[in-house]
Each structure stands twice: as C-alpha cells, then as structure tokens.
Amino acid sequence: MCFKRCTERIWIEIVQVTFSNKCFREGLLLGLGNPLLDISANVDHEFLQKYDLKPNNAILAEEKHKLLYEELMELYNADFIAGGSVQNTMRVAQWLLQKPKVATYMGCVGRDKYSKILEDKAAADGLNVRYQYTDKESTGTCAVLITGKERSLCANLAAANCFSPLHIEKPENKHLIDIAKYIYISGFFLTVSPESIQAVAKHAHENDKVFMMNLSAPFLCEFFQKPMMAAFPYVDIIFGNETEADTFAKANNLDATDRKQIALKISEMEKINDKRKRIVVITQGTEAVLLAKDGTITEYPVIKLPEEKVVDTNAAGDAFVGGFLAQLVQGKSIDTCIKCGIWTAAQIVQRSGCTYEGKPNFQS
C-alpha cells in the first residue's frame, strides 16, 4: 500500500514537472540593460555626505565620485555582486523558473576580469548572457552604500554606456529578439541607447509582443524625459516605486498627487498598441502595491517582515519585477504575478545583495 502511494506521488510530480516545462521555453523573455558589478558596503551618513549622496536614491557618478569606488574597496569590507537592474531581474526570474535560458540578457561590458565574473555568475544562474564587448571602457560598477536599512546607489556606467544598436542587429542576436515574446528594459537604459530601445519597442509592437519598462529612478523622469516619452507609447506594462511615480506625475503635468490617481492617469496615457490597455504597477516599500488595470485600482498588501530579518533592500524592486515576470511568461494572471513579485522581494531583502539560495517555494 505504501509502495503504491509512493509510486502515485512520484508519477504526479513527473506530470507536474512535464506540464510546467511545456508552459515556457528558452528565449521567451528578453532583457536589455546596463550590466554592472555591484560594490556593496555598509557606511555611515558622513560617508554619504562626503560624496554628496542621499539615502534611498540612485544617481549616475560624476567627477566628484571618482575616488568613491577605491575608498569602498580599500577601507570598507565591500562585497562584489553581479548587478545591474535588468540583469538582477532576469537572474531572479531564472531562479523562480528553474529552467535554463528562458531569459536572455543583453548589455555592454569591458574586456576585463570583472566582465568574466559577471558572465560566470549570470550563466551559473541559468541566464543566457549575450554581452556586447568594448575595448573603450572597463566594465561598469555601482557603489551600493548601505546605511542601516537604507541604500544609496552611485553607478559608474563605463562600458555599459557603449552599447550600440549594432549588437542587436547581429544575426545571432536578432534571432533571440525574434523568438522572445516578452521584452523588458529599465529606465536606466534610456541614458545609454535610446535607439536600441526604439528598435525593440517597434519590433514588439509590430509583432504583438509584450513590451515592459521600469521608471527606475526619479532623475530619469526629470532629466531623460524625452527618450522616456518616446518609448512610453509602446509600453504595455510599466513598473515604478512611489518616488518615481510622484516625480513622473510632476514631470508630465498629470495634475495628480494621489498615487492611485497617478497610476490611473499613467495607464491612460497614449498607447500605440490598442489591442490591450496599459498596466501600471507601483510599489510603495512597506505599503500596498498598486495595480492600475482596465480603469480600476487594486491594492495588494505586502509581506511585513520583522525588522531584524531585513538585511538589504537594495534589490527589492528588481526582485519584485523578476517574480512578476516569472509568472507572466507562464501565462499566469496579473494577480498571481504581483503576489509572486511581493513574495520574491520579501525573500531577497533578507539577504545581502540580489542573492538567493535553494529552490523557490512560491505558492500561488
């Protein structure tokens, strides 16, 4: 009797795995962004002041930040983690999917030891890495400065700035774009290659694919408004946090301060593909996630963790989108996508950097 029950259980598990693997395939999801090696360390507020940085903010490095990276490595116990917003999201999606190369990632790196570290780590996570290499710059880095539960990001894009449309025109890379059904970019990529964004956005529209973007940082909504709004009419799903949404509303004169109204107005902005309405997802830290869909706002409570369990909120947003996309490519409902995003973010913030271990056990 016991043998029979065990046999039945094994058979059910085999059927479940087989069915699950048929739900998604290699190359289904494509991400374009800025691959960066994160240099992460705990610092004090005096260190932030020294380099004119603010907690819970993200900026691009200027000349005054030149010595920041060396100081982090020499004087602080810094960790090196494969990073970059989209690369983080793709890695997290791969962790949840548990099937290699469902996600493809493109970005530009230098020909150096850091790009080798990035590629090895990403490939080990199951990601299909298709870097463009340049001899002009070294691989980009991002200082992740942790003060208590807050973090400040200062990115030196370096080689990431050198991405060009030539890379996506290569036959082997064009093939990967052709077979993808879901395409995701970060707002950070707007500073690098608006031409590439326009190319993949138009491809998505012409082939009825899902094109998604993240607002990524308040400064992008303000100072890179032109390339952002050029891409916006193609966006099917837009992600952002509370400060990004507020800044976007001001920059685009949406005449709204209530975040629910902001989400609805963003969903109603011009959209080229009229086969489906735009979906807007706004995260709000420890407050409810807002979903604007079909003219309606839905709120999703987040998982409240004890303060002592929260280690690093740096990758929470990237992890949320990774969880969302992992369900989306399997054809799951938006409701399930958001719940998985919330669950995934809660797992990642309990570790340092965008890291994870073991097999995910998300239950929809």
Automatic annotation (TrEMBL):
Q: Which residues form the Carbohydrate kinase PfkB domain?
A: 48-356
Question: What does this chain do?
Answer: ATP dependent phosphorylation of adenosine and other related nucleoside analogs to monophosphate derivatives.
Q: Which organism is it from?
A: Cardiocondyla obscurior
SUPFAM superfamilies xref list: Ribokinase-like
Q: Which reaction does it catalyse?
A: adenosine + ATP = AMP + ADP + H(+)
Cofactor(s) recorded for this entry are:
Mg(2+)
Question: What is the active site of this protein?
Answer: D318
EC nos: 2.7.1.20
Return the protein name. Adenosine kinase
- Which GO molecular function annotations are given, in alphabetical order? adenosine kinase activity; ATP binding
